[in-house]
Amino acid sequence: MKNEIYENARERYAELGVNTDKAIERLGKIKISMHCWQGDDVLGFLFAGQELTGGIQATGNYPGKARNAAELRADLQKAFSLIGGKHKVNLHAIYADTDERVDLDGLEPRHFASWADWAKEQGVGLDFNPTCFSHPKSESGFTLSSADEGIRSFWVEHCRRSRRIGEYFGRELGQKCVTNIWVPDGYKDIPVDRLGPRQRLERSLDEILSEKLEEGCNLDAVESKLFGIGSESYVVGSHEFYMGYAVKNHIAIALDAGHFHPMEYISNKISSALMFADELLLHVSRPIRWDSDHVVILDDELQEIANELVRGNLLARTHVGLDYFDASINRIAAWVIGMRSMQKALLRSLLEPTETLRRAELEGDYTTRLAMLEEMKGMPWQAVFDRFCEEQSVPVGSAWLEEVRRYEKDVLSER
Ligand code: RNT
Ligand code: ZN
Fold first, then answer.
1. Cα atoms in the Cβ-side hemisphere of radius 13 Å centred on 320
2. Which atom of ligand 1 lies at the shortest distance from residue 228's CA?
3. What per-residue confidence (pLDDT) applies to 63?
């Protein structure tokens, strides 16, 4: 019976010249970087009792968050068992797994050895981020652009060390680690000097990137933002700043879906950014009225992002990562929903008769373009996604939720 449903879907797509088996195969090869910080509300393990700062916020107090690296890894593993394909885990510096008392400017690859070992064993890759927030030295609201030389150099050192950790991950795991720099620096109210902090940020980045690392292990990325809580009027690392910096210095530009004006969409920026930047990092998120970091769902913008990547053949130069933190629901479910939604969006793009649509567009036949795009929404892509899950030996449909519930009862409720 099940097979019949897939065969039927396969035929429907074949009529449009689309090969569903190929789409399933291609989807299985797309790696998504799953952000570790959904597992514990961006708190990390390096500084016990430290609250989340930097103008970002996780709201809710759903029970069962991971309290140490072992718990977080168990949770990540549970989530991965419900998501088809092999992926990456995106770590932050505050997730160092060590008993040593070490500050951010003293971190070394060995503080992340357990992560590298685990990733190897699990067959997943790792990405990395310096943590330029939730620290006494970020309290002024400024890190890499600070006018205080002691503060600025502390963060420069932290970022330099972060790149070496990225290099270590890349070397150990045989796949490039993306090390992404995001800093919260900015002013609540209208500044007098917008230029000075940007000049200092550039200087800091130059100092950080001046160290040559082993080829092919680490990819540097920089992430912009429009505003944060407490930096409503001015953010030093704006989009224009980093777009210029990334292009000039041949590093990757990061686009976070929540870091622009509420009616501005990153799907419309991908093609432009990749014309001038070599590589792109995406922080796929779901902003609701502000940069709220809601769980990613299969909405129009997610579909548009996936369409851009697939239609433009841009996946090879794009690193797809998720970035959200919802503490009001089961955190493992939050990962699974976001990851599976991202995959569904990509699959729907892979199942599109793009050439037919492109031809209609070029011929000025916008009637066909609109009609076809609407018809595609009703095509049986869900049957193809079910087949993908079956082939990947992960639960089909909402069966994954029962697994999460069982884990919640057996493991999370004991925390
Ligand atoms: C903050 C940025 C940044 C963080 C993570 C935790 O607005 O989106 O990427 O969410 O580094
Ligand atoms: Zn982000």
1. 24
2. 7
3. 98
What does residue 319 show for φ and ψ, rounded to 5 degrees?
-110, 110
> Considering only CA atoms, which of 231, 220, 152, 232 is closest in space to residue 184?
231
Q: Out of 40, 56, 253, give the residue to mutate to test ligand 1, the one with the largest number of ligand atoms within 8 Å of its CB.
A: 56
The protein residue with its alpha carbon nearest to ligand 1, atom 3, reads 182
**Residue among 87, 225, 269, 319 flagged as catalytic:** 225
**Type of residue found at 219:** L
Q: Which is it for the CA torsion 335, 341, 344, 345, positive or negative?
A: negative
Cα–Cα distance, 144 to 242 (Å, whole number): 14
Question: What pLDDT is attached to residue 281?
Answer: 98
* CA-based max dimension of the chain: 69
Average pLDDT taken over every residue of the chain:
97
d(CA 257, CA 267): 8
Burial letters 189-224, b for 16+ CB under 10 A, else e:
eeeeeeeebbebbbebbebbbeeebeeebbbbbbbb
Nearest ligand 1 atom to alpha carbon 223: 9
Contact assessment for residue 68 and residue 44, using Cβ atoms and an 8 Å cutoff: no
Residue 2 has pLDDT above 80, yes or no: no
Query: Is 365 in the active site?
Result: no
**C-alpha 88 chain-centroid distance:** 10
Do 13 and 349 touch, CB atoms closer than 8 A?
no
Tokens of 165: 């950790």
What is the number of the ligand 1 atom nearest to the C-alpha of 42? 6
Token look-up 């992340």 returns 112
Q: Give the model's pLDDT for residue 183.
A: 98
- Token readout for 329 is 């629901």
Exposed/middle/buried for residue 232 (C-beta within 10 Å: 0-12, 13-18, 19+): middle
In the chain, the N- to C-terminal Cα span, in Å, equals: 42
* Residue matched to tokens 């981020």: 129
Express each pLDDT in 288-311 by its tens digit. 999 999 999 999 999 999 999 999
57-94 residue pLDDT tens: 999 999 999 999 999 999 999 999 999 999 999 999 99
Q: Is 283 in the pocket of ligand 1 (CB under 6 A)?
A: yes
- What is the pLDDT at residue 1? 53
Q: Letter for the amino acid at 335?
A: W
Total residue count of the chain as it appears in this document: 415
Q: Where are the beta strands (DSSP E) in 41-162?
A: 88-92, 125-129
In the predicted structure, residue 35 carries a pLDDT above the cut 60: yes
